[in-house]
Amino acid sequence: MEKHRIIFFDTTLRDGEQAPGCGMGVYDKLRMAHQLDALGADVIEAGFPMASEDDFRAVSLVAAEIMRPVIAGLARASEPDIRRAWAALDCARHPRIHVFLASSDLHLQCKLKISREQALEQASRAVAYARSLCDDVEFSPEDATRSDPDFLCRLVQAAVDAGATTINIPDTVGYSIPDEFAATIRSIRERVRSIENVIISVHCHNDLGLAVANTIAALHAGARQVECTINGIGERAGNASLEEISMILSVRQAQLPFESGINTQQIYPASCLLSQIIGFTPQPNKAIVGRNAFAHEAGIHQHGVIANPLCYEIMTPESVGVPGNRLVLGKHSGRHALSKRLAELGFTPSGSELDSVYARFMKLAENKKNIYDQDLLSLVSLPAHQQAAIHATT
Ligand code: KIV
Ligand code: ZN
Prior knowledge:
Layout: E1 4-5, E2 7-10, H1 12-16, H2 26-39, E3 43-47, H3 53-65, E4 70-76, H4 79-88, E5 95-102, H5 105-112, H6 116-133, E6 137-142, H7 149-161, E7 166-171, H8 178-191, E8 199-204, H9 211-220, E9 225-228, H10 242-251, E10 258-259, H11 267-278, H12 299-307, H13 335-344, H14 351-367, H15 373-381, H16 384-393
Parallel strand pairs: 1-10, 2-3, 2-9, 3-4, 4-5, 5-6, 6-7, 7-8, 8-9
The chain binds 3-methyl-2-oxobutanoic acid and zinc ion.
């Protein structure tokens, strides 16, 4: 079976960061970007430089330090935004300017107050300007899935003619369903001239819980770049989750004609680092990285897993970087076990830091029988007042 290499475009630091409660500091973004590099992300969207001074600094810092992946900065379809994005990408070895402009009548009329003709002209001008600065330009027609299909094709055509190298089709409000989304991708491939010279990307939101299903459907229809985030964070119900897409490609590789450069063993460390930075973890039943993703409590399941893990596990915890050693931590655990577990999660607090984490750990263990990885992350990351709140409720 011929395998198509899928480009993983991670937008944890941009779309992910836009979600309520997911704000990240400049240096936290840099730490996260190093982890995304280790994970094998092909493109890291580091921010929206025009949005704030901090976003600009974050994109600049990531661009200056992270050399292997493409580093993207987001810009509205306007010269000042594009100039700002380009300035932030100044030190990038592989820069990309990502330009977006709405394509649905709803957005054009109510939000931007421009006509379709004006949108065509604005997109064309913006993409051409971005291309005059940078060889790698992505264009996104925002709210593509609620746009008139003919107009969507005309707008994409204008962007391709102006020099876009990637066309990203966002399901901005998570409205589409898999067959329909795949048909949209096919129709763009059939109707837009020279589309075979550009990469088609998809960017799915999870409002109906279909972000990953829509993404996979789009790959079958010819998309070759997926936009996604760690733990699926992002606006409202989030974006397609990187760990789910990459593990679908990995677990079902015999059935799927796709491959990626993701080092799946770095998934759990990436998830933990993000949780530590933003101060909350994915829901317990979250696929791949949730606390219960590899947990078995029912006796019949425990028996099956002991007999052969394949009875109830379609992938090993180790394959996604979940430490194999399942030591249960509780009030009888010592500093050594705590520090070993923290190291497995990627944290190596020094002597006095470890003392204070251990003291907090013991306090938590007085009220909570089992201490999970996610509890440990809260101990190493949360400010004191939030830790106190957790202790009060557990
Ligand atoms: O959801 C969306 O439409 C976006 C675009 C900026 C790509 O995030
Ligand atoms: Zn988005």
